[in-house]
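User: Second chain of the day. Same drill as before.
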Amino acid sequence: MKIAMVCQNYPPAIFEGGISHYSRRLARHLSAMGEDVVIIAGDGYCGDGSDEAISVMKFPGEWDVQTAQQMVISLSSLRIDTVNFQYSPVMYPSKFKFAWKHIASHFASTVSFHTLWGGSKLNYLVALRLLSSADGVIATNSEVMYLLKKYMPFFLKKTHFIPIGANIEPTDAKGDSEEIVARYLLDPNIPVLAYFGMLYPGKGMNLLFNAARILLDKYRLDFRLLVIGGGISDVSEYREEKRRLTSKLGVEDKVIWTGKLPAAEVSALLSRSEVVILPFDSGVSDRRGSLMAALAHHKAVVTTKPSVPVDLFKNGDNMIWPASQNADAFAKAIFQVLQDDALRRKLENGASDLIRHFEWSEIAEQTRAYFQDIIEKKKFFNR
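Assistant: Same format as last time:
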């Protein structure tokens, strides 16, 4: 099977995010299973045109109708069987989102929705157009499924739920891990808290740092807080704003900013931490690769209440979210997990059990089977 996957910011790229890393993990697994995978990337792609056995085609400039036409010509020459669009509203210019229908009409097509809509009101119309034109739809998380069931249930027949997996997995290199941890001068007698993920609005950084201040004042807790990750484009303004906040709150000497790190270094620091803190403004979700990374490292996670139900998430069993989304409640939950060894072990075991539902081998197998099904249906209806 020849698969084309459209991901404008396929790694390595200037603007990388969770969908970029998800696409690479999925593409590599499909390739390892014997499938021929071609990536369609944009200007931001910084690689050399290949990723292991995967070919990467770069289409420069702002994507529009002409770009879509060029893609059809190129992919037709490669005899592509199916085209998959890795979609989030913020990732593509509007002209290209509307031009996707032209690509979808030439191939067995699927759209993987990581977010259904958001931002401009125009994106509601875009979602409707993509859902209508695709031969198949992949919902990568419970939020997308929830919105489809509530607002567009007529598209559920063509929708298949296939979750995301961890974007960072535990490293096996113990010696390297010890060297990485030593670099940050982490005292073995001082608890290590970790935040992991891209830094941009919506990630709850104000809640995180205000909770840190309360841990110092109310609970007299000494700790180190690792902030692992960079800005979505590594623009410094947002990060510097939050640095100023830590200074204002008087916790700057407790916070260690790592910036963007290679996967092995992220893994080493996650493994060293006692608690991973993910204070999403919109609530924890199974669309978050950073959550999956924490679960893959079997970490106790303190987070925020889901905005839509996720059946597998059990408060107090495989993660903890306070009833109130404020700094006092958050600090109390963190302190409780640190002080209660039995609770922390319970959460760690719960994370270990939970991540089994998000294994990449199963995700890739389900995706491959769905692509094959879409191809066969397309052939049948085109007879």
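The longest strand covers residues 36-41.

User: Great, on to the next one.
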